[in-house]
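User: Can you write out an input/output pair for a complex, sequences first and structure second?

Assistant: Here is one pair. Inputs:
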Amino acid sequence: MNTEDLIKQSASEQRKALLNKEVKATEILDALYKHIEAENAEIGDFNSLTQDEAYETAKKVDEKIANGEDLPKLAGIPLALKDNINLKGFKTTASSKILENFVSPYDATVSKKLKENLIPVVGKTNLDEFAMGSSNENSAFNNVKNPWNLNKVPGGSSGGSAAAVSAYHSTLALGSDTGGSIRLPASFCGIVGMKPTYGRVSRYGLIAFGSSLDQIGPFARTVEDCALLAEAIAGYDEHDSTSLNLEVPDMTQNLNKDIKGMKIGVIKELYETGLAPDVRKALDDAIQAYKNLGAEIEMISLPLIKYSIGVYYIVATAEASSNLARYDGVKYGYRAPNCESLIEMYNKTRAQGFGEEVKRRIMLGTYALSSGYYDAYYKKAQQLRRLIKNDFDHAFEKVDMLMCPTCPDTAFDIGSKSEDPLAMYLTDIATITANLAGIPAMSLPFALDSNKMPIGIQLLAPMLKEDRMFNFAYKLEQVADFNNKHQNNFAQKTVC
Ligand code: GLN
């Protein structure tokens, strides 16, 4: 097989080719970089490339294969890293001017795990500034474009990671998900993306946004690859006090398990109203597919879902206002020049360094936490958050899995919502609840709409039941046969 075909394959297929010595890990990188160099200016998925790191790891893999040594499951499989995750010796910008020249002095725990697993990091991917956004239009650098249609957004905030995997610039990617930032771009770009249970993956070395909501998670083009990467990055870490001290299960162990008799709840509030007709049809088809597999379907009402956007935008902005206080021009990052006093330096650094959306969030969060308003906003939001979690707990007493579309609509046109923050926030309606409740959730591509844009189906599982979720996703993936649609589409499109 030539490398052009190989870069479109799944990690499992690429591994087979590596072990059979049909290709070298360094040759896979050569082929990827050729594409990235030709297409990154247009798609804008990478902020920077990390060739030194990638080739060093790939060479190790090639040596081990030549020596007949055992290899971790994803050794040699290229990965794109969201540019808010630290990789020692390389820039971590969070797509913000305030960190434009920041070089990380240490590895995030997930980056350490990538190295242990001999996974080459191809580059750092573009995002909405500090992961705040749903379209990638808030990056201080480039807009990322959706590889399926360059006039559309890729979704956000991990738009670069999703676009990279979708455009065959990488086999795998990591993103972060505070309120849907992995699942929404996965849905818009026609790939698989997953947010683990809160605490499953260490947040050490991830640039903090909303610390009680943030999780790092995987992107891939197949459910199996996504599960393998989820397993590789999971596990207890003493550097993150919220990380769970539990054994990591084999995430692929149940992939092909029969789901006959299992119960799936369709979230009523995300079924009955507000869905684009094509999305509704895809959801109905997915429901039918599960019925054909022998699962039982019932409608489940989560009545408090209607408050989740309000709750999220108080909790997330409050935490962001606190987390982003550290960018003051003193210790690292951008410092405004020609200031005469410390206060002037703080003010100018932050005024010049942060973009509009980040400033909006800091102001909203500071307001929600201010004395006199704390009880009315932040405390009330936390109380509602608990009730939303309770709703999920009750639902999972009745069903094994919940499902809904990942987004009520498919990718929208670049610029069409950027002047209207509220319309933008509403795209998160189906995804943010999982972050508020801390449960695992994922998006998998299921169908195309009438404009040939991907539609994602979201699965939401009880706490720590990632392996069950991958099982349900794997079954639906087989029905959707989406990878063929993806490859056919890209046969005539951007990938030359
Ligand atoms: N769109 C959401 C926001 O802007 C989600 C962000 C995220 O998950 N990082 O806050």
